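Limitations
The structure tokens in this dataset are predictions for the assembled complex, not deposited experimental models. Users should treat interface geometry with appropriate caution, especially where small molecules or nucleic acid strands are included. An illustrative entry is reproduced here so readers can see what is and is not provided.
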Amino acid sequence: MSSAVSPLAPTEVPDMPVIGGVRLATAAAGIRYKGRTDVLLAIMDKGTNAAGVFTQSKCPSAPVEWCRAQLKGAGSSKGGLARALVVNSGNANAFTGKTGRQATTLTASIAAKAVGCKPNEVFLASTGVIGEPLDASKFDGVLGTLADSAAPADWMGAARAIMTTDTFPKVATATVKLGKAKVTINGMAKGAGMIAPDMATMLSFVFTDAPLSSAVLQALLKSGVQDTFNALTIDSDTSTSDTLLAFATGTAAAAGAPKITRAGDPRLKAFTKAFRAVLADLAEQVARDGEGARKLVEVIVEGATTNISARRIAMSIANSPLVKTAIAGEDANWGRVVMAVGKAGEPANRDKLSISFNGIRVAKSGARDPSYNEAEVSEAMKAPKIQIKVALGLGKGRDRVLTCDLTKEYVAINGDYRS
Amino acid sequence: MSSAVSPLAPTEVPDMPVIGGVRLATAAAGIRYKGRTDVLLAIMDKGTNAAGVFTQSKCPSAPVEWCRAQLKGAGSSKGGLARALVVNSGNANAFTGKTGRQATTLTASIAAKAVGCKPNEVFLASTGVIGEPLDASKFDGVLGTLADSAAPADWMGAARAIMTTDTFPKVATATVKLGKAKVTINGMAKGAGMIAPDMATMLSFVFTDAPLSSAVLQALLKSGVQDTFNALTIDSDTSTSDTLLAFATGTAAAAGAPKITRAGDPRLKAFTKAFRAVLADLAEQVARDGEGARKLVEVIVEGATTNISARRIAMSIANSPLVKTAIAGEDANWGRVVMAVGKAGEPANRDKLSISFNGIRVAKSGARDPSYNEAEVSEAMKAPKIQIKVALGLGKGRDRVLTCDLTKEYVAINGDYRS
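Predicted assembly:
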């Protein structure tokens, strides 16, 4: 595994404020890694509402199935209540058959006992190797100790405990007014590889003290992932464990924050924007920590027939190994971008295409730009962030997705991950 | 560019027989490469019929558009006649706008003059870098010399002239009875990267002396590519230049071969089988020469709800960077295979899945096989050919696709191809 921190890691790490009603603790349970934390327990006050979005994989992990089951009644008074979140890294508990289901049940019951809640108020997420049984008995004892030591402050430590091939912990925060009260949103994520859209994403957890119902949280997640986590791809591979959970403790109600139970509530406007900014921040950090990444790549497609068409073309570009290796080689290879546009199967007219790299137009009307200057473009390709902009010239459809380059390090990391 | 021959190259090269009515010549026109041939001229006798299948890219190259136009009347008496094929490597003449169209017109007119035919009897294919103008005036003179020197024998030389990042020339041959006469099928291909299905394939040309109409040839191609070139992927990227052309000179009619004008003609049975075998042979050679490939990978999916569903799942596995890097690392990482099944979006039931590597079952009923033996599987993964077999347990749908592993060499080759 790569240990050097990604050169694209954010240079400034935010101070993570405390969220009323949330306490965190981490431990080294020795699930797979040595000498590092690998279990996170988050304890939420009574009355915390939960929501989640999950992988679209037809073969989801046992923890994903567990969380889905707990959220079934979300929006009614019977479900979507959360008191604990248990996350382990090192083993995804995916493709583990009956043993996997037993491991989730056992983990939830151990956590429920430790926290003093019902098992169906416990949410679970696991990340790491697929196909190997998770020994949930390792949580016995550990979770009790964690429950005793849980404290509000260590968000970076929590983000660190859920890492796998990540090279840096990923956190984001926003503070915003809800009614006249100040409310806070804190998020963390882990990513790195096996990351493609059409899902929530790898693992990400967002907490707020705002008094929001499960249904409101669910609506915020659903609209929020569309242009953040779902507009992100590292390698086109979709994990069986992708999980994004949101928890609202509601403690800000004591400071006067209004209870919001309707997604369309106009008082939610600033909160929605801040919530989305936290998701966007975390998604970008995942792209910045793509396995082996040396360049952050932003693909913008405009002039498509529809926004959906623009998304498909942008994803075709962002998932193309040949585009991604060209970026790794600092080569403004617009021919490969044309190739990726062409294979997307969406309306495109070769002779109307324009393509820019970092604002320098290299191709226009289906051929090399007359003003093309190799030296200028080559210099621009040395930047750590590359924007590929494709103008199709057909309509008003527009989209943006994030990815990273494809380097030999990606192959090295993934050619010897399991053993 | 990599120069060492792929370790997966065939150890035996067939003796390529002469095809009546076909003469070949190659030259070094200095289009891009130094010290090697880069132009192939094939001259066919009068009365040769042609057919072709092409990339599904929405942004096809100028030569693809040229060939499509010449085949428009194929099947009628007005089109589908061929007297010459000009192939150049080093420049794909793709995404070159009006200049590209002018280059094809100019090349065809130079070739027509050299061969003594009409420009619409000239077929063109170009392969190499995309987006850079092709200077067709370089063919002036060269093609005249080639026409004078063209001879029936040098098929390997022809296959060599059309290579780009290929590490070995790809030829295949079959001899079969048509009626009571012996007829021959010779094929060549170039491949290596930017190879994905839903198309004909990169460049491949098949010649026969059998007296087949354009319509029959077209039908043979259409059905023939389905489980050969279309069941092949190197990197999921679809070239803008993919072209598979077939030419039937009909000279075997003199030896008594019947003229076939109907695709359903029962006399065509043995020929159809042999034709498909040539395509399958060439397609496998392309997989064996996948850029940076160290392992040939055969993915078999069975028990799917339909054959189409099996194809989609097989392609999802074959295109997964995480599966391909695991194979490169000789890691029987069945968890990633489950991931790729799950992301395909096709019917799958995690708990019914079985997965084998080279005949060793590693997963059964959605969990690790009880008889799993790490040492045995690790040993099997050292083989140069890896078969991944997935049994879905849902229905009778079955499919097979070929690919290769994803190595650091792929990234090296493509990270610095253009410059």
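Some entries come with short summary sentences. For this one: Confidence is low (pLDDT under 50) at residues 196-201 of chain A.
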